[in-house]
Amino acid sequence: MEARSRLLLLGLDGLPLSLARDLAPELPNLARIVAKAGTVEAELPELSPVNWTSLATGQGPEVHGVFGFSRLQAESFDLSIVCAEDVACPTIFDHLGKHGLISRVINLPNTYPARPLRGMLVSGFVAEQWEQSVYPPFLAHALPEYQLEADTIRGADDPAFLLQELHNTLRSRRQAVERLWPDLDWDVFVVVLTETDRLFHFLYPAMTDSSHPWHAPCRSFLQEWDRLIGRILGLWDALPGPKRLMVMADHGFTTLRTEVDVNAWLRHNGFLRLSTPAKDEWDATAIAPESAAFALDPGRVYLHTRERFPSGILSPNEAKQLLPQLKQGLEALTFNGERVMERVFTKEELYRGPQQYRAPDLVCLAREGFDLKAKFDREQIFGTFGRTGAHTAHGAIFYDSHGWSPERMRHIGQEVLRHFNISESIGSPTDVGSLFPTNGAAGLILA
User: Fold this and answer.
1) What letters, b where the CB count within 10 A reaches 16 and e where it falls short, cover 27-60?
2) Fewer CB within 10 Å, N or C, the chain?
3) Are residues 23 and 163 both part of a single domain?
4) Is the pLDDT assigned to residue 117 strictly greater than 70?
């Protein structure tokens, strides 16, 4: 009988290779990965739900339909958080299951609510109700005291509390690994450690600045994080062959210089108007009908067209004329004399697939240190609001024990299927999209 081949995917959310190299001398298990690591480019926008969903489907946003953290109902302008139900194509776990292969998945973002699969799943961010976060249901009782996510709202102003929360969630990830790994009745094992992303958002300067007041506590946490990496690598070492290990981050990180609010820029330039003061930063219902454009986090710009929105005011010709004006204006935006944007893309430049109709008209990619936002209650374009770290689209860590290198996150999911000689799902976007026909813009949700 041919030996069972197993593949371990270890996600280190938000970890840039440059920082990993700086940390490696103090973190021996991370050092083992760094020694032969390269990088992977993030899908755009460079957010967790976009990128982890690209890995989980082997497709880009133009096929899986997830373009950010939030989704907008085109008729009501109600804004909500994306979830697994917004994923418009099969996942690699669906394809693996059809071929009799078993997956076990821990803390993979945008897998809530947990869907049935051939295997086991503990959902990742954003997960809300514990009972809906696991499959099969018995896992809800098999993982006592599992904490889904750190409370970063309170933690933003309380570093000690944030670090304690991260210790708690890290212990939960360990608990899940120890519960789901040992019987070895699986072919693909996925575990994502999202704690680094939370830590870097609020305490990034403490990673490298030894004079920072939270430097020692942060390094202490990272040592615990490294021990869990060591435990996972030790389990992989003990596996009988054949086997394969991939380690990846979904995006990089850097020190935040300033947040840049795209909606504030649109308002300052007369493109976005509010009919009433926004109740909070998420209140898209405040958008006035006479608005020509608005943005959703992080820098997704939508033209307020008649074709797309019942309240839209722009004709196709007016939209065609406005688009280059917005693109040029955003690319010319500066902060203290320095250009903010690396590039502003049109949707046609980034996305060609069955879900393109849901894509933003423009996608802004900021230069390093600038963190794009799209709030509805901010007046100022620039400012800081408690965060000290910002995502980057470049430089995310990637390692493969087989020496393979991806270009973007979607290619990792595709390679998982190739590893198991599953090829029918790795085709053009049109091929996959034909399995999930779209119905035009009726009842459109912009995810």
Assistant:
1) bebbebbbeebebbbbbbbbbbbbbbbbbbbbbb
2) N
3) yes
4) yes
